From TrEMBL:
Short name of any one Pfam family annotated for the protein: ADP_ribosyl_GH
Gene3D superfamilies noted in UniProt: ADP-ribosylation/Crystallin J1
UniProt-recorded name of the protein: ADP-ribosylation/Crystallin J1
Keyword Magnesium: yes
Length: 389
């Protein structure tokens, strides 16, 4: 019997749960990213049930020259680095963000401020760790001087923006429509097509999960009410399949089969098809539908949702990041031993960004209330309805 999420969780608890939950999911998924469920099963002699070491052991620096990263042993990846960077932007601006905030604040953060990078085991610029699709932000905006609202056009279409959009949902807690709109604006600097759409839907899902009384089913319903084109269809098909399962083991292959027609990468994650990651109204990123599917399979339970995402393989660090963010926002507790190990191994305070974002979220809500009342008064003066109390 899976424990139920805490329906009475406060805003502070949901923000902390979502952000810490995302980071822990990221760290658990990192060492098995890129592999299939069958490969994971064979390599580990069973399913992954917690923090594990690098796939190639001590040879992690040289086994994959393209990605010489220490994935495993509790290290977070670029998903968390980008999430924390976006929180720092919110902490500077202290209001809603748009694509210009990404250009003015996020891009300089990535390329000018050295930080501890867990997978590199050294102080470095975040730019030196983030993947090519995220380096596009710096290339297009800083060096190419592109309009930030359109800078994502031409980038490979992937989950790169969606993977760090949970703060947008948290700032707009219980207002998924606003989260969707803000995330689409922000993500325009980074992604286009279904990659940008996924960023909006993920933010909306997190905002919906913060609503008192929210359930995995209500979160998915909100996503379906907002998502467009292939993203909506992929979520619908994957979640319909997920509803038939109560254990991630039985769901692994069926969820992959359900999302496969909408995923452009193809069956071999490390050898993408020629049509991979191109703009399309017919397709979707794989990560978001599967994360939502695992949330349903787990009935909102954090541990079960994240372990399902991890053992799914493929881009499982991002899938587990999203599943962890959603389960945490619903109020499902994060295993404290996992959180402690990840924080210590990554040399990161996982709770400080949550505290910072909570304070900013409250400030933004106060501003939103004031702006709304000003609008109501102006509209009433035009002959509209009287202002609300």
């Amino acid at each position: 019997m899976k424990p139920k999420p805490h329906q009475n969780a406060t805003l502070d608890e949901r923000i902390t749960g979502s952000l810490v939950g995302a980071a822990v999911g990221d760290a658990l998924g990192g060492p098995v990213e890129g592999y299939s469920p069958e490969q994971i099963l064979e390599h580990h002699g069973g399913r992954v049930h917690g923090i594990v070491g690098p796939w190639h052991g001590e040879a992690w620096r040289t086994a994959r020259p393209l990605a010489p990263y220490h994935k495993g042993d509790g290290h977070v990846t670029d998903d968390t680095l980008m999430t924390h960077a976006l929180i720092r932007v919110y902490a500077r601006v202290r209001d809603h963000l748009d694509a210009y905030a990404i250009a003015d604040h996020l891009v300089p953060d990535l390329m000018t401020e050295t930080r501890w990078i867990p997978e590199l085991e050294t102080e470095a610029l975040p730019l030196h760790r983030i993947f090519l699709a995220e380096k596009w932000l710096v290339t297009r905006i800083h060096y190419g001087h592109a309009d930030p609202r359109e800078a994502g056009t031409g980038n490979i279409v992937n989950c790169g923006a969606a993977m760090y959009m949970s703060p947008v949902g948290l700032v707009n807690a219980a207002n998924p429509q606003a989260a969707y709109a803000e995330a689409l604006d922000i993500a325009g600097a980074h992604q286009s097509s279904y990659g940008r759409e996924a960023a909006g839907v993920l933010a909306a899902a997190v905002a919906a999960a913060c609503t008192p009384g929210a359930t995995p089913d209500s979160v998915v319903s909100t996503c379906l009410s907002l998502a467009k084109d292939g993203t909506r269809t992929a979520i619908e098909r994957v979640c319909a399949e997920a509803s038939r399962h109560t254990d991630f083991e039985s769901a692994l292959s069926p969820l992959r089969e359900a999302v496969a027609p909408y995923d452009t990468v193809g069956p071999d994650y490390r050898a993408p098809s020629l049509g991979a990651r191109r703009p399309s109204r017919l397709h979707a990123i794989e990560e978001l539908p599967v994360a939502l599917g695992m949330l349903l399979v787990a009935q909102g339970d954090y541990r079960h949702a994240v372990l399902g995402a991890v053992n799914y393989g493929r881009d499982c660090d991002s899938i587990a990041t999203m599943a962890g963010a959603l389960a945490g926002a619903l109020g499902s507790p994060i295993p404290q031993d996992w959180a402690k190990t990840v924080a210590e191994a990554s040399r990161l305070d996982l709770w400080e960004p949550a505290a910072a974002l909570t304070a900013v979220t409250r400030e933004i809500f106060t501003r939103d209330t004031s702006r709304r009342r000003t609008h109501e008064q102006a509209f009433a003066s035009l002959g509209g309805p009287e202002c609300s109390a």
